[in-house]
Amino acid sequence: MLMDSFRLRAYSLIWWLVLPLALLRLWLRGQREPGYREHIAERLGRYAPAPTSPLIWVHAVSVGETRAAEPLIRRLLRDFPSHTILITHMTVTGRATGQQLFADESRVIQAYLPYDTLSMTQRFCTHFRPQLGVLMETEVWPCLIDACRRAAIPITLVNARLSERSLKKAQYFSGLLRAAARKIDRVAAQTEDDATRLRAMGAQHVTVTGSLKFDIDPPANGLAQGRDWRARWGNRPVLLCASTREGEERLLLDAMVTASLPEHFLVLIVPRHPQRFDEVAHLIDERGFRWMRRSAWRSENLPSDVNVVLGDSMGEMFAYYAASDIAFIGGSLLPLGGQNLVEALSCGKPAIVGKHTFNFEQITEDAIEFGVAVRINDADDLFTQLSEWLEDTSGLQDTSARAAQFTQLHRGATEKTLRLLSEVMR
CA–CA separation, 388 vs 30, rounded Å? Predict the structure, then answer.
């Protein structure tokens, strides 16, 4: 116990030492994304008055976690009508996503989570006094979890995932992280493999509940928007490159230059991070493609000679999926771990992934086995696979139907997770 306390205090001290650099980074990042210069006091544990109603707290660090939390938060609002739901984030895009998803919910409030020091996390717990804390996916913060334990706030980790690579990294800080993991009251893991790795990290009460993302219903307005886009683009094949990461766009565009593509083929590129929109625009321009930004295209028909649309908008991913024929899932061409392909499949879009999917390995392998996803070696393989699918129109339609079926077969994580949370609340 004394050693755990020493490690925690040393870790908190390191946070204080790097805090000036963290605040400087926020301010510099605010040059591109002004939202990072807002609500800075919250990141230091200073907040507006808390609601007087009982409160359940959900931490969803960024966009993906916020979207994944939506079905669970909707059920919490329904099943606990006297409670306010506090959603905390670390990124501006995560907060903006939460605002969009819950704009009609007066019982949902948002804030930034403070930096992980002993005093700031203690202020957070004392200020809000939630009856339950719900951390999404991989958010194991030692000081935060210790502060919750000291304040008698039950803490859970849900939709939890841990790759083999992340486990190996965590072992470098095993003393600190194992102590934090042991203090988590309950863990709801996505897969059996995730559960095994979470136990190896120190989590003690682990249940497999599946992925909450399977329970997300594609929004009707997003699907309608995508169909409207498609009607204005004309009868042309459309590939969506979704949530691409740094280095991938260059590979995709270079392969596109040499690929034998159908006439009037259209590629949508939607970078994962908005601060990279201008960088990707420059890459497209360098290669001489006729292209257009989503932000510059309104309601007119898309010119037939436009080869590439840069998705430089927020909150429209389901519309992009609905407007496409096939989706490449970014983060997988390079060793970045990949993004979740469930949203693409839920919209009935077959998925193409690269070799690097260790963040979502089990779901990806299940989709490949079911025949609704294909793994490729490199960007050239992507366009080869694309041509094969586009040449077999009936086969592509069948695969699209099976993609939606695959997500239906895996639903139910929200109900299982809610039962677990209700047990902890009691």
Answer: 44
